[in-house]
Amino acid sequence: MGTIEKRGKNSWRVGTQVLTDSGWEWVREPVHFPATMSEARQRKEAEKALVRLELAIDAGQAKPAQSQYTVKSFSELWMSQHVAPNLSANTLKNYRHFLDTRILPALGNIPLKKLTPLLLTQWLNDVRSSPRRSTALPEAQLKTPRRPSEQKRMDTAKPQSMPLSPRTIQHYHDTLCSMLDKAVQWDILAKNPMDKVDRPTAKKVRVHYLTEERAVDLLRCLHDEDNMCYRAALLLALLCGLRLGEVGALRLSDVDWDNGTIDVSHALKYTPQQGSYEGPPKSEAGERLITLPVGMMAVLHETAEYQKDAADWARDVWVGEGWIVHGWNGARLHHDTVSKWFRRFADAHGFEGVRFHDLRHTHATILLANSIDVVAVASRMGHDDATVTLQTYAHALRRRDVDAARTVQTLLDLANVQLVPTPEGQKK
Fold first, then answer.
1. What does 287-349 look like in DSSP terms, one character per residue?
2. Mean pLDDT of all residues in 399-417
3. Average pLDDT, rounded, for the chain
4. What are the boundaries of each domain within the chain?
5. Is pLDDT at 64 greater than 70 in this prediction?
6. Cα atoms in the 13 Å half-sphere on the side-chain side of 312
7. Cα–Cα distance between 40 and 6 in angstroms, integer?
8. Which helix or strand (DSSP H or E) is residue 5 part of?
9. Is the pLDDT of residue 183 over 70?
10. DSSP string of 173-241, one letter each residue
11. What's the average model confidence in pLDDT over 65-91?
12. Residues 308-320, buried b or exposed e (16+ Cβ, 10 A)?
């Protein structure tokens, strides 16, 4: 049986009980009216609201759980019951960041059923106009002071007063949309209000890569690098297309010395809560067997000898487990150590602004530009779909387009026909 309660001036609450697995539970809904409406009229409208609530319950569009969850309380349920058990620690970290910075502060106390497309559109516009927030720790909280080059890079970074990038705004949209999709799947919401909120548009991120000539220059600069671990790391990215995390997780035991291949089945990852840890590659296709060029095999042989010498020098403090990239005592490096080394190496040799990940882009670009089959390139890069490879590295096909023009030009050359009329042949 339904009830109608007057809760205050121009404020009412309607409710009814629903039989659930745990017994009878109330489903209630507040109703508010303008001050100009008489109390008798308000009661009649409240009666109509009760009928609508009962119809919504019959249609499965209103449930007891609905009245219990706010955006904040449901986000904790979503994180604990879906994100943490099923997704990677990095994904959990990213979702936590998006929730804590701009989703929960603005929407946290709002009941899920009160979310509307208009309200969410207004929130997204507020996100779009909000300033950036630096995640860099203050100097006083650092264990070691920043290097001058790192401080210079921070000083020249984009000012925090600039608005967020369109891609970042997409992340906020997608996070909330994914969370509310799960509320629908769990029968807590009848529909996702984010379905009617336009997803922000963002330009495709431009891939940065080195030309073949610049890649050759980089290899020549690498000749003077004494640390074989860093030398191997750079070459594994440039000559094999490996990601930074994949390089960090490789052991010498992953190398098939007889067949000249390397097994990529792990990646080094990082979250502030867990620190550096080993996990699976970015996707299922990331687990792959890569054929190494002869020169890369020679470098790995030399790296193995380098490691033996380092172990002999370190003796009792050696803690190595055969990592290809390791510290002075064989310990596994922090996930970002190689990237920081490369930034210093690149800046010192005239490759300012080149990132370690750009070496991977260079690898794919060179292969496609030299007519290597796109499926083979996708497999080597660890892409689930060759279409992703084509979309990411479409710029590499430009040289092949020029080759195509030269090929069809041979038709004209063989025909030996003058297609452009001479001045004498033109009509006067």
1. -EEEEPPHHHHHHHHHHHHHHHHHHHHHGGG----SBSSB-TTSPBPPTTHHHHHHHHHHHHT
2. 79
3. 87
4. 3-67, 71-132+160-196, 212-396
5. no
6. 6
7. 12
8. strand 3-8
9. yes
10. HHHHHHHHHHHHHTTS-SS-GGGGSPPPP-PPPPPP---HHHHHHHHHHHTT---HHHHHHHHHHHHH-
11. 87
12. eebbeebeeebeb
β-bridge mates for residue 271, sequence order: 275
High-pLDDT (> 90) share of the chain, %: 56
Token pair recorded at residue 284 = 């299922």
Tell me the fold of 71-132+160-196: DNA polymerase; domain 1 (1.10.150)
Q: Which residues touch 246 (CB under 8 Å, ≥6 apart)?
A: 264, 266, 267, 268, 281, 286, 382
Phi then psi for residue 3, to 5 deg, are: -130, 150
pLDDT tens across 275-327, in order? Answer: 888 888 888 889 999 999 999 999 999 999 999 999 999 999 999 889 999 99
Pairing mode, strands 288-291 and 261-264: antiparallel
Supply angle C-alpha 157, 159, 161, rounded to 5: 160
Secondary structure string (H, E, C) spanning 401-413: HHHHHHHHHHHHH
Q: What are phi and psi of 205, to 5 degrees?
A: -65, 130
Residue 386, pLDDT above cutoff 70: yes
Q: Under DSSP, is residue 275 helix (H, G, I), strand (E, B) or coil?
A: strand
Contact yes or no for 276/215 (Cβ under 8 A): no
> DSSP readout, 11-22?
EEEEEEEEEETT
**What does the pLDDT average to over 175-198?**
92
412 to each of 180, 292, 339, 407, 415, how far by Cα in Å?
Answer: 61, 42, 51, 10, 5
Sheet holding 23-32, edge to edge: 3-8, 11-20, 23-32
Assigned token pair, 72: 């904040």
Token pair of 93, please? 């970290």
Residues 6+ apart with CB under 8 A from 85: none
Residue 142, pLDDT score: 67
Residue 180 tokens read as 């509310």
Fold of 212-396: hpI Integrase; Chain A (1.10.443)
Sign of CA pseudo-dihedral 261, 263, 268, 269: positive
Residue 322, phi then psi, degrees to nearest 5: 85, 15
